[in-house]
Structure formats: structure tokens, C-alpha cells
Amino acid sequence: FSSASGPRVCIVGGGPAGFYTAQQLLKARRDAVVDIYERLPVPFGLVRFGVAPDHPEVKNVINTFTQTAQHERCSFYGNVNVGKDVTIEELRQAYHAVVLSYGAEGNRSMKIPGEDLSGVFSAKDFVGWYNGLPNNKELCPDLNCETAVILGQGNVALDVARILLSPVDMLKETDITQNSLAVLAGSNVRRVLIVGRRGPLQIACTIKELREMVNLPNTRADMMPNDFEGIAEALKDLPRPRKRLTELMMKAVKEGRGDKVEKSWGFRFFRSPVEVLAGADGKRATGIRLALNKLEGSGEDTRAVPTGQLEDLECGLIISSIGYKSFPIDPTVPFDPRKAIVPNAMGRVQDTTGLYCSGWVKRGPTGVIATTMNDSFDTARVLIQDMEAGEVDLSVNKAGAQAITALLQTRGVRTVLFPQWEKINAEEEKRGKSLGKPREKLLDVDEMLKIAWS
Ligand code: FAD
Hints:
Blueprint: E1 8-12, H1 16-28, E2 33-37, H2 46-49, H3 61-69, E3 74-78, H4 88-94, E4 97-100, E5 106-107, E6 120-122, H5 123-130, E7 147-151, H6 155-165, H7 168-171, H8 178-185, E8 191-195, H9 207-214, E9 219-221, H10 231-234, H11 240-255, E10 263-268, E11 271-278, E12 285-296, E13 303-314, E14 317-320, E15 324-325, E16 344-345, E17 348-349, E18 355-357, H12 360-363, H13 369-388, H14 401-410, E19 416-417, H15 418-433, H16 445-452
Parallel strand pairs: 1-2, 1-4, 2-3, 4-18, 6-14, 7-8, 7-14, 8-10, 9-10
Antiparallel strand pairs: 3-19, 5-15, 11-12, 12-13, 16-17
Helix pairs in contact: 1-3, 1-13, 6-9, 9-11, 15-16
The structure holds flavin-adenine dinucleotide.
């Protein structure tokens, strides 16, 4: 039998995975109460802090998330760092089920000498900087160099390349932060090389992002035609999306678009980073040493194997975009350090009951918002099945947010509720309006809190 108050579910993390899991739970169980706990005072995770400012259409999902947050059986508690302010065990005591949806807040490091030199950044921090992530507000990269090298060839790498090369006039009407806009306006970067260890047929970006690179004004593609040897013959056997992507790349190689243009970008294939090279002061990066690779194997198993040859590239800015990764947030929760995810079967956390996961912490840091949505819906369905099968015990009443907010209060943690986030939102929109932008993000957590609680 069910508890009188219906199932109470707690979600950890207010990004797409958290909101989509909540949405599905609320829809499928008319008696479920869902509370979302988020570390920051502001919701939406990487939709706010990851998605590029010149992709406003992607951010429309915020409207759906807002509807979920405003649902009568859903509450949002921002400014709660789960694992520090409250433990998972405490949440499990207070709820029938807990869903971990806290994303992937770390980055994979290159593990090469020189990685800590100045002028070297992770894409995660660089993206966080131009998107207003409070932790990255001081990053202030020195863009006083001609060549930037990005390591990794996924969509995040292309986002960063595009932001570095886009005319500031195109960016100034987006929600990019004013301080990064000012740094980009003074940038001397004219050439961006995007390096990958494998070849054109293994590239991880999607066609939309590639097309945006090809169409950048005042910028030409600068590729190495040799990298494309044999690709034309391979085209006919490729699945359609990969075929279209490859054809577009080859078109860019051929056309190179305009000699009179000031800026260029290009892929550099078959290369792995070996060492960041320092200038005479030993502090600043002035180049990168790459190992040249050849490919072995075929299909998904194609591997890059070093040929023994090395190549040095001169550059003043290096951004490593080789992937995000999740951290464990609580010692009582199983964690797979190799895959950097919470080990699970279809969203059920291994060796536990009542504990679930969704989004990047469940399947690793890949996939667009739609992938995260499907994955979160799956977790919600599995959770509901478990409730119906009695695997999740609903026979006892759980105190839910009442217990947790009381606990947080005794620890001096004050939450930001959704209407309080809406005050921050209104302030950001107001500041943006005067600058001709959709919003000007607040960069400082204390300032956010002041406005939220005013
Ligand atoms: P996140 O979005 O990371 O959300 C996790 C949330 O958990 C965050 O709000 C975080 O603050 C919170 N959290 C973390 N730790 C704690 C804690 N201890 N306690 C409480 N809360 C916590 N997809 C697209 O479809 N289109 C795009 O254009 C696109 N661009 C992208 C650009 C970049 C740079 C990146 C990195 C990703 C992009 N994606 C894009 C992918 C998309 O952002 C992800 O699929 C999606 O955000 C993953 O959702 P998530 O909820 O698992 O993680």
C-alpha cells in the first residue's frame, strides 16, 4: 500500500537531467512530490553555463524546466551543496527515493608536462568564463597571441573556436558576459587549430557546429589536404550523418574560402599532445609538441598509434577540450573512478535501494540535451516501476523537504527557492536590456544571494 502523502523523491542537481527526471515523475505519478536540490543559487546547469551564447535557440528548454519548477508538486532548493551541506544518507532518510543528477563538473586532464603553464586552460574553465560561471570569473585569458590551439575535436572544441573567431559584433547581442566580450574585443587571435588524435572519419563534432565554422565571416578554413587522402573513396560506405559531415569538411578543404580574409581555422588530424612548451621565462606556454599518429583497426575500434615522429606548433593559447568528468560527491555512494560515473543498471545505482541516477553522472559526459532527456525519462520510468513493484518502500511516510530544510537551517544554510531565482532572473534581464542583450549574468554568488533574498 502507498503512504498517505504519496512518494517523495529528491533530485540532486538542477540541470537538464534533474528537470527532465522531475518532469517525467510528476507526469507519471499524480501523487508524487519532487524536490530538486541545486548547489548554485541559479538553476539549469550547463544550459546556462555550457551551451554557447550564440546558440540561444538551444536554451529554449529553460521554458519547459521553468514550468516543471512551477508545478504544484515540485520545489527547487538552490544554494544547497549536496555532499557538504547535507549528506546523501540524510536525503535517503527524508525521501522514498533519491536521484543523482549532478552532472560532470570536472575535466579530464591531458597528463602531459607543461599543462600548468600560464596560457593553458581547460575548455570547461574557458567556457565557464565566457558563460559567467562564478568559479571562472577571474580566468581572464591573455589573448595577445596569434595562434590558439584547441586539443579535442568535439562540439565543445568547436564552440570555443567559434567564440574565439566570431566578430565581436555577432557576440555582443548574446548573453555572453560583458567582461569576456571586452577581452575578446581586444583579442589578437587570428588562427585557431583544432587538434585530434585520429582522422577525419573519426571526428566527434556534429554538422551544425561544423557548418557554423565554415560560415564564419572573415575567416577561411586552413586544412592539410594530405589528411584527407583516401577519404573520397571511403565516402560511399559511410552512414548518412557521417557522410554529410565528411563531405562538408572536404568542401572546406577544397574551397578554403577567400584569401583576403584575416582569420583562419583548421583541423589538425593524427596528432596527440606530448608536452606544452614554455618560453624563456619558463612560465608561459609558447607552443605545443605533438606526436604524429597513424591509425590501426577499423570502424569504432580505430586506434591512433604513434609513429615516433614529433612536431612542434607555435601558439600562445592552448585549450584542452578532451572531456568533462564527474566526481564522487558523497563517500557512501558507489563511484566508478575509471569511467568517472556512478555505476548503475538502467539508472538504478549499483548495490543500493532507493538510489538512482540520470544524465551525465549516469552515462558519462557525452550527448546533447535530447540524449540527456531520453536518459532521464528512462530513469524516471525505472523508478516508477520499482515503486509499483514494491522495490521502493512507500509504506512509510517521509518528511521530505520539511526535514531537510530544518536540518539545513541548523547548519546555517539558507536556500534559494524558485521565485527567488526569478528575482535574479529579472535583475539579469534588466541589466541585459540596457546593453541590448537578453541578459547580463550576475557573476558573483554573494550578489545573487543578496538579490534573491531582498
Ligand atoms: P549539468 O547540466 O551539468 O547539470 C548538473 C547540475 O548539478 C548543475 O546545475 C550543477 O550545479 C549541479 N550540481 C553539481 N554538483 C552538485 C551538488 N554537489 N549538489 C547539488 N547540485 C550539484 N547540448 C545541446 O543539446 N546543445 C548544445 O549546444 C550543447 N552545448 C554544450 C556546450 C558545452 C560546453 C557542454 C559542456 C555541453 C553542451 N551540451 C549541449 C550538452 C548538455 O549541456 C548536456 O547534455 C546536459 O547539460 C547534461 O545534463 P546534466 O543535468 O546531466 O548535467
